[in-house]
Amino acid sequence: MKRSNHQSQDGSAASSVNISGVSSAKRRPPNRPIDVVRFPHWSVYFDGASEIYSDDHELAPAINAFTTYFFTIIDKYATEKKPIKPSLRVIAISYADLQSQCQLQDLSERLKLDPESVLASLGLAFSNALIEKFGDVVKRLKRHVRILGHDQITPLKDLKSNLMGRFITIRGTIVRVSSIKPIVTRISFSCTSCSATQVILQIDGKYKTPTSCPGDGCRGRTFVPERSGLSDTKTVDWQRIRVQEKLPEDQKDSGRIPRTVECELTEDLVDLIVPGDV
After folding, report:
1. Of which family is this protein a member (predicted)?
2. Which residues pair with 172 in a beta bridge?
3. Are residues 10 and 134 in the same domain?
């Protein structure tokens, strides 16, 4: 089971992928470098002023390398007569396979230290591959890439504050699951003075309101959330689980109480496990 938290962006990874030209709807062979420098779905994955796209963005080489990798995945599924559809929103990939096929020198370290940007880059790359394969039928929505087989297990006793924002793997038994609830991730607010709208990200579900109006010359300071289905307000499914460590055989009869940790699941990860699962 994987658990990751938020962390600020760090330096870019070295890459042997060459970047030039602009994106093309024409399918490229998976063994050739991808020369995409414009990513149509960029704002879906990097939603914030700190991640404005530019042609020399530090993540561009990684996204292009991941796009090449997903071409091989799409071709593999097609060969096995399990074709990937353009509507697919979640895909699971092997950690070992990703490491061996991507041309990034420090992928393992980067995933560990900056999981948020790496996972977002993987999702964007998957969208890029679908766009180049299927064209305009690919809808503008967020896709998730789930990494399987990350074998660097972190014992529960080592879960300390120094691991905040890191990509880690824990192993244990599910002892409790909560009911599924909605959690808001972004809210569209409307200015009561000029009706201008703006979207505010709700980090970890904590309610946050705008501080100023984006309207020209408007000094409004009062905003109301838009709740209609046509607004940019977004909620996702949320669930909390409790994981209990598996004690070694030589400690099972020692009387020590197993450690537990609570984890939060969202979106496609909810409602997948029940108490007793490992």
Report:
1. Belongs to the MCM family.
2. 245
3. yes
Q: Are residues 117 and 229 in the same domain?
A: no
| CATH number assigned to the domain comprising residue 121 | 3.30.1640.10
Q: Are 69 and 106 in contact (CB under 8 A)?
A: no
Domain, as residue range, for 7: 2-148
**String of DSSP letters for 50-98:** GG---TT-TTHHHHHHHHHHHHHHHHHHHHTT-PPPTT--EEEEEHHHH
Query: Is residue 211 included in any domain, yes or no?
Result: yes
Nearest to 25 by CA among 12, 40, 47: 40
φ/ψ (deg, to 5) at 79:
-65, -35
Q: Coil, helix or strand for 53?
A: coil
Dist. CA 278–CA 275, nearest whole Å: 9
Half-sphere exposure of 4 (CA within 13 A, CB side): 20
- Tell me the pLDDT of the chain (278 aa) as tens digits: 444 443 333 333 333 332 222 233 333 333 333 333 467 888 888 875 456 677 677 888 888 889 999 999 998 888 877 888 888 999 999 999 998 888 788 888 899 999 999 999 999 999 999 998 888 888 888 899 999 999 889 999 999 999 998 999 999 999 999 999 999 989 999 999 999 999 998 988 889 999 999 888 898 999 999 887 777 888 999 999 999 998 776 666 566 788 999 999 999 999 999 999 88
